[in-house]
Structures are given as C-alpha cells and as structure tokens.
Design a protein that fits this description.
Layout lengths: L2 H9 L8 H7 L4 E3 L5 E3 L2 H8 L4 E2 L7 H6 L20 H10 L15 H13 L6 E3 H6 L1 H11 L6 H15 L7 H28 L5 H7 L9 H32 L1 H9 L4 H11 L6 E6 L3 E3 L2 E3 L4 E4 L1 H4 L34 H18 L4 E2 L19 E3 L6
Parallel strand pairs: 2-8
Antiparallel strand pairs: 1-2, 3-5, 4-10, 5-8, 6-7, 9-10
Helix pairs in contact: 1-2, 6-8, 6-16, 8-9, 8-12, 9-10, 10-12, 12-16, 13-16, 14-16
Protein name: Cytochrome P450
Family: Belongs to the cytochrome P450 family.
GO molecular function, one term: monooxygenase activity
C-alpha cells in the first residue's frame, strides 16, 4: 500500500471510527511525500521537532501556488483578519501575548481557576436536564452546549443572548463538518450568514464594553493596554471568533471521545466514579489516546528542511499527524492501550511549540469536571451503538452522536 493511498484512506469517512491501524502503517515512513507534493509527518519526534522549528509556517500565504491548490478548502470565508492561530512571529506573538493578558499567567493567573464553580454548575444543570429519560445523545444534550455556554460566560455574553450565540455557534460548527447529502452552496450561504450576524453582534457588544467595561474577557480585550499596545476592533473580533470556534470544537470532541473511551473501559469508569482525583491524569491520557484534533494540515516550509532522511522543499504543504505521533511506540510504551496511570505522558493532544493550544487550561478543566460528573451521576451507563456515527471532519475527529442508555440519575 502506498503512502498516498494511506492518506486517502485516513481522510476517507469509511475509516473515521478507527484510523489507528492506518496511522501504524503511515509511521513506517516517518516523512512521506504524496503525489501532489504534500508531505505527511507521522512519528512523534519528527512532529515535535517541526512544531518547534521556526522554518515551519502556519500562514498559508507562504505556500507555493502548487501546494496551495492541493490544500483542502475550508468552510470559513470571512472578512476578518487571520487569527493568531494562522500567523507567524512577530504578529502571532504580539496577538497571542495580548490575548493571554486577560486569560492566564502572569497577568491573570486565576481567570480559569476562578471559573471552576461556574463550570461545575453548568455541568450539573446539563445533567439535571436529562430529567427522567433513560437515554440521551451525549453530543447534542451535553458536549455541544457545555463549551459554548462556557465561552459565553468567559466573553461576558449577556444571559438573554446566549440562545442566539448557541445558534450561531452550532451553524458555524456544522459548516466545519459538512454533510455529504447537503447542498454545499446552501451550507456556505447559511454559514456565512451566521458569521456575519455573529460579527455584527460582537461588534455592537465591543462598542458597549468600550464605554462600560465589565469583569469579562471581551472587556479586557477591548480596553487592555500593555507593552504591545491595544487591539484594533477587527483584531478583537477575530480573537473572539477564534475563542468561540477553536474553544468549542475541540472541547466537544474531547468530552465525547472521553465518555466513549470510558464506556469501552468500564473498570476505569468505576475508578473515576470512586476517585474523582483520577480525572487529571485520565484527561491527559485521553488527549494522547483519542486527541480531539487528529492532524494539522495547514503548515508550510519557509526553507528546505532535512528530516528523517527526507528533504521537504521550501513552500511545501506539510501535514503533521498528531494522533499518529501520540501512538508512536518509539515514544510511548504499549501506545494502543488506554492507561490513565501512564507516566511521562508528554502527548501532542494540544500541539506543542509557539502554537500550543491557547485554551488548554480551560479545556482540561472542562473535561475533568464533565467526565467526573457524568461518571458520578449516570446509573449503569452503556453505549447504544459502538462504534457511534462519527463527524465527517477528519481533522476534528469525534462522534457526531453518542447515544447512551442508563438506569436513571444519581442525586
């Protein structure tokens, strides 16, 4: 089987439920070239090296014309400038520093920690919402609404507007996970309308916060002054959109993949129910074992790079298969076993280097609280179907629905 054939199989929906045997085949050639000039990197140490290499760019404008033509077209056309996720230093560093000031250390060290009580209440309310049902779709009923509610509270979206915000988030999320039975033009139109309405709404909210700031992150982004100056209104908009989309999508998958893995490992589920402190190492192992972001397809080289006996030429498109690196036996002992007691678990679940996931502390806490509460509250939970139906998206891999039966809720 050629490497090109392997990549087509990995991105083929038919293999979404279990791509890991294909990743094992891919790792036999750590850096492989595809027929269209695309380079795929599949082993841990090579991925880690390139994530820290300043000759690797996240800005698609640096792709050669041939490589740009081969890159998948993403459903996110927008008038906003690129978020810092898609920029290189020094612009990336400036915007990331400015966003970090109101979000985490050293300037706001307790922003995430202080949300713990509110996050726990949101989780408890969502589980209470299961009511007297004995079956739920964990994705629709829990893992989708949870993170977008959290982002609403983080940004300071007024409570009465949260339902509208949820609707926009759901529409944008659907555009990232296309249904092959839908008309792509209609999907693009609906998604663009949602982005436009969201942008108009956030612009109005930004104007309000400029005049009357509150104790929320959007106010801090609007009014913040530091060594890097102040964000422009368009940069605030772009950053808020990044927090919504990136923060929402990855956490949905982390929680859904996590519960699926726990139900497949009932001994670990029982341990978590009896010992909530297990949640911390358990979530780290989930990020290795079933990462919510499987691969990074939008990297390019700023110079020729020699790695693993291969030269990747300047301007080439490079795909870093994080999920494959996380199962690399050269880095992890018995990598296909789910082991929450694993030591030295330096996974690639949140990437690495300057683009290491900005929202990782919040995503970790959300997953820890969510999985602990689900393990505690659901009586005798079990999968209705295994494997469940997966999302179409090969990058953001997770169940589209996760139907769980259970024998009532514990108090």
């Amino acid at each position: 089987m050629t490497q090109g054939t392997l990549l087509r199989q990995i991105t083929d929906y038919a293999n979404r439920a279990d791509p890991y045997p294909l990743y094992a085949e891919l790792r036999k050639t750590p850096v492989s070239q595809q027929g269209d000039g695309l380079f795929v990197v599949s082993t841990y140490w090579e991925i880690e090296s390139l994530l820290h290499d300043p000759r690797i760019s996240s800005d698609v404008r640096n792709l050669s014309p041939q490589a740009a033509g081969a890159l998948p077209q993403e459903e996110e056309a927008t008038a906003l400038p690129p978020s810092f996720l898609r920029l290189d230093p020094p612009e990336h560093d400036r915007l990331r520093r400015m966003t970090m000031r109101p979000f985490g250390p050293p300037h706001s060290p307790r922003r995430v920690y202080n949300m713990r009580g509110e996050l726990a209440r949101i989780v408890s309310d969502l589980v209470d919402g299961f009511g007297d049902r004995n079956q739920v779709d964990l994705v629709d009923d829990f893992s989708y609404p949870f993170p977008v509610t959290v982002i609403c509270r983080l940004l300071g979206i007024p409570h009465e507007d949260e339902a509208r915000f949820h609707s926009w988030a759901d529409t944008i999320a659907a555009s990232l996970d296309p249904n092959p039975d839908e008309d792509p033009r209609e999907r693009r139109r609906v998604a663009q309308q949602a982005r436009t309405e969201l942008g108009v709404y956030l612009s109005g909210l930004i104007d309000e916060r400029r005049g009357a700031p509150g104790d929320d992150m959007l106010s801090a982004l609007v009014t913040g002054h530091g060594p890097d100056g102040q964000m422009t209104p368009m940069e605030v908009l772009s950053t808020a959109a990044l927090l919504l989309i990136a923060g929402h999508e990855t956490t949905v998958n982390l929680i859904a993949n996590g519960m699926l893995t726990l139900l497949r490992n009932p001994d670990v589920l029982k341990r978590l129910r009896d010992d909530p402190q297990l949640a911390v190492p358990l979530v780290e192992e989930l990020l290795r074992f079933e990462p919510p972001v499987q691969l990074l397809p939008q990297r390019t080289t700023l110079a020729d790079i020699d790695i693993a006996d291969t030269t990747i030429p300047m301007g080439a498109s490079v795909w870093l298969v994080l999920a494959s690196g996380n199962r690399d036996p050269q880095r992890f002992l018995d990598p296909d076993r789910f082991d929450p007691d694993r030591r030295d678990n330096q996974h690639l679940g949140f990437g690495s280097g300057i683009h290491n996931c900005f929202g990782a502390p919040l995503a970790r806490l959300e997953a820890q609280l969510a999985l602990t509460e689900l393990a505690r509250r659901l009586g005798n939970p079990r999968l209705v179907e295994d494997p469940p139906p997966y999302r179409q998206n090969a990058v953001l891999r997770g169940p589209r629905h996760l139907n769980i039966a259970f024998d009532g809720l514990r108090a």
